[in-house]
Amino acid sequence: MKLQVLAVVVGTMVLSGCQLTDNVKQSTQNKTVVAGQQVLLNKAYSINPDCTVRGTPNVTMVTQPQNGRLEIKAGMDYPNFPASNTHASCNTRRVAMTKMTYIPNPGYQGTDTATFRVIFPSGAERIERYDIRVR
User: Fold this and answer.
1) Does pTM top 0.70 for this prediction?
2) What is the DSSP string of 34-97?
3) Over the stretch 83-94, which tens digit does the pLDDT of each residue have?
4) R_g over Cα of the chain
């Protein structure tokens, strides 16, 4: 069970900076998007080793961007587990997940910030901050 929870948390994102505070994993990532286009910030999913869905992570916005908007939508896509992860065989199967997408305001170029809170069915929680550069 602990291995499954760890696989879900580790498999859902590559962290550029991460710290653990009160058992809440926090990360900050940098993303660049071309002006007028949208960028997928992250995907949240929780799956079993046999690739069946364990449940739907709850994704909420902590801070809205000032120069764009965020979409939080359910969808189907491929997970992205590292090859060494026991869930790596699931990378070839589309699974249910929640996608977080940033859409800059028309004509905007500059920087923006957005923060999400993700709570997994296991109770694991993380806060993800994105520093976004629109070029």
Assistant:
1) yes
2) -TT--EEEEEE--B-TTS-B--PPEEEEEE--SSEEEEEEEEEE-----TTSTTGGGGGS-EEE
3) 999 999 999 999
4) 15
